[in-house]
From TrEMBL:
Name of protein: Family with sequence similarity 237 member B
Superkingdom as given in the UniProt entry: Eukaryota
Signal peptide: 1-24
Keywords: Signal
Amino acid sequence: VGSALRRRWYLQLGCVLLLNLVYANLDYPKEIPASLGQIDHQCWEVSSQGLVEMKKLKVADSVVTLWDFMMFLKESPKPKHNELFNDLAQNFWDMYVDCVLSRSHGMGRRQLISPKYFVAYS
């Protein structure tokens, strides 16, 4: 009796899976959704400026010069330049993703605790 019930259950499961396959939506979007392919320009600017300030980059005084410098580092044959590029790119990406996530969740820009509060409550 147990094996007959098990076979019947497997038959029902197989039928459900087969029906799902037959009636599946084959027009599933094959391209990247627009929201994933777009750059948040405000976060890009804020993160770029934050990177310049955080790393105290003297060679980059604007977003454009920062990315010119980044491309120079990336295309350089010197391993030290590539290491610096990777470090800067990782820091930028962390700030950019944090900004995008903050904005998409309605939290606005995250603020660091003011030093006077940090000393008072640490």
